[in-house]
Specification:
The chain contains three helices and no strands. With about 80 residues, the protein is mainly alpha-helical. InterPro entries: DUF8150.
């Protein structure tokens, strides 16, 4: 496989991943429109909590953790 073929294959893979992510976003939007926040809210919280727990287990710096916390607070203020 040539370098150009590898790059083309990688570009195709990135395109597929982007399409899959966009489809997942559309599915989530449909889900939250069809279900009350009492149903999807705890599910979303579980996902976010799991991601935060994983991030903490990676041993990131305290500065990075503060940055993530500040961002989370900013996002929660948007509601």
């Amino acid at each position: 496989m040539t370098d150009s073929q590898k790059l083309e294959r990688l570009a195709e893979k990135h395109e597929q991943i982007s399409e899959e992510r966009l489809e997942a976003v559309h599915q989530w939007v449909n889900y939250i429109q069809e279900h009350p926040p009492e149903v999807w809210g705890p599910q979303q919280n579980a996902v976010v909590d799991s991601q935060l727990e994983s991030a903490q287990e990676t041993g990131l710096s305290a500065d990075h953790e503060r940055h993530v916390q500040a961002l989370a607070e900013e996002l929660s203020d948007i509601d």
